[in-house]
Each structure stands twice: as structure tokens, then as C-alpha cells.
Amino acid sequence: MNRKVPISLPRKQGGVALIMVLLVVALVTVLAVQLSKRLQMNVIRTMNYQQSEQAYWYWLSAEEIARQLLQLQVKDSKGVIHQGQVWYLQTEEERVYPLEGGGNANVAIKDLHSCFNLNALKGDSLSTEQLVRRKVQMRMLLQAAMPDIDDYKADVIVESMADWLDRDEQMASSYGAERSDYESLNVPYQAANDFFVHESELRLVRGITQPVYQALKPYVCVIPNSNKNELNFNTVEHGELVHAITLGALTVDEGKAALENRPDDGYDGIEDARNNSILAQASGQPINPNFGGVPRPSGITAESLGGMFDDLVVKSNYFELDTQVQFGDMELRGQSKLYVAEDDSVVLLRGLGEP
């Protein structure tokens, strides 16, 4: 009778099999962890995308509400805009709107006629007198914002701004800058020869250093594709702007005093604004333009530039919305520039990021 002899693996082979099993388990565990991480990342990415899209549409919704509010305000007041209206009177808390699902939207409205339009120096459609007037205004604003700025540097900045905006490649004076000046820099670029799109573009212009830009920033803005130069006396907040726009008929301090002397609901027209005691007193005095050191075109005098009231208005059509949306873990900030009339309103430009 034959006995069956039990077959057993050598100890070394059993150890190898155990190691192989452990390796397989470890490999499966690593793959499972990696798959779990990828799934988690995909879920987070999807949530971020959804929150980003939702925040974007909340931004557009806030823009639409503000657009309708402004159009109603313009229609009710026949275009007259002042600081006694709802769009301006809202406090910081009243500008914050709760959102469904959590979060909030904060909308701030700015009148783009309460600041100096950088595109006003685009002189392609202006007469010589008009362009010189605007250059003088820009120079006086720059010197009011930076009292210690060198006269030569102020001339360079103003002339370079005009060259940046005009369509040709020829400098209007030796103080300006054109394509060749920018192409010779360590990091070369070209002059736009067109309208400014955003205030930050000013940093590219010859002579505009960071301190100069920061000094000018509270006083300037950009109206897209327009060289209008109208300052709304009802909404302007800085005496420096009144001083510059009136070509020195008012000092900075007198400009501040004139603004403090306004009625709460503004003026119905510039003729009405002449009743402002500070303006009335200044209107009897000649303007005091600062031409700087740039050679003047033939026939240009202080008298040929016009009067102190020529660029003052009480109506506004261009506005900027600065909207901040916080939804979930997403924060979005965007600016919208609007044209608003009694019977029409258009979004001219949108941009994301800090203003």
C-alpha cells in the first residue's frame, strides 16, 4: 500500500509568495489612495468652477440692477446727476446685497464725470486751442497732486501722454515720446497711438513712475473711446480737479471751499452753479493757466483758451461700477463701465481684478 507523501513548499518559496502578496496589497492601496485623491481634486475643481460661474453671473446681475437704477435716476432728473441721489447716498452697509446660497455682492458706483478723463488729451479731433487747453489742465492737475514735481518733468509727462494717444509717430514737441523712445528701453514696447483702455496703462507712458501714478490715481479715470472733458460740478470731490479744470481761476483751497458750498441736491445747471458764492467771485477774475515750458503754438494766449466754466457740467452719462462678489469660497471683483442716457444704456467695458 503506497502512502501519499504531503508536498510542502520550501520555506524560502513560502516567504517569496508572502512578499508578493504584500506587494500586491501595497500596490492596490497606493492606487486606491491615488484614485481617491484624484476624485477629491476633481470634486474640488468642479465645485470651484461652479462657484466661479455663479459668482460671475451674480456680478452681471448686480451690474444689471445698477444699470437700471442709474437709467431711472437719469430719466427722472433729466440727466442732472448729483450727490443727493440714491446711487451716491448708499452707505457701505447699504451697498452690500445678500446672495441666495450664502455670500454677498458689494456694488460701488462712480461718476466718470467727477474725474479727469485721460483720453481727453487725444487731440486728433480737437482744435489747437482745445488741445492746448487740455494739456494745461492736465499739467495743473499734476502739479496740484504733486506740488513738489519738477516743472520739466511735468511737461514731459503731459506731452508724452498726448503723443501716446495721437495717431501719428511724430512728437508734437521735444518734450514728448513716441515709438522709438519706448522701443529703445531694456524691455521694449510700442506707444498705443490710441485711446487708453484702463487707468493703469498710464504707467507705460514716459515719465510716469509709480509715485506719480499713485499721486494721480484719485483724480483720473478713463472713458472708453471718448475724449470728452467734462467735469460734473455736482459730483466732483476734489478741489484739485476744480482748480485744474477752471484753468487756475480757483486755487485748490478755493475749489475745496466751492465744493463745500454746494447744496445737498446739487445745481440744475451751470448757470445755477454761478450762484455759488466762490464761483461767482472767481468768475470776475481772469483765468491763470500754467503753460509750462513747452513752446506755445502761434496765436495761443490765455484769452484764446476759453473761460473757467467751459468744461463744467451738471449732467453725466458715463459711470463705473466696482463690484465685489463673495460666494462660497470664491471671491470675484470686476469693473463695468456704462453709458447711461434717458432712453438707453450700454455696457462699454468689463474687466476682472482690482480697479
Short description:
The chain has helices spanning about 10-75, 85-90, 130-145, 150-165, 180-185, 210-215, 240-245, 250-260, 270-275, 275-285, and strands at about 95-100, 105-110, 115, 220, 230, 310-315, 320-325, 330-340, 345-350.
The major β-sheet equals: 5 strands, antiparallel
What count of helical segments does DSSP give? 10
Q: Can you identify the CATH superfamily of the largest domain?
A: EpsJ-like
Shape: globular
CATH class of the largest domain: Mainly Alpha
Strand order of the largest sheet: 1-2-7-8-9
Domain T2SS protein K first SAM-like: 114-225
Protein name: Type II secretion system protein K
InterPro entries: GspK, GspK_central_sf, Pilin-like, T2SSK_SAM-like_1st
GO biological process, one term: protein secretion
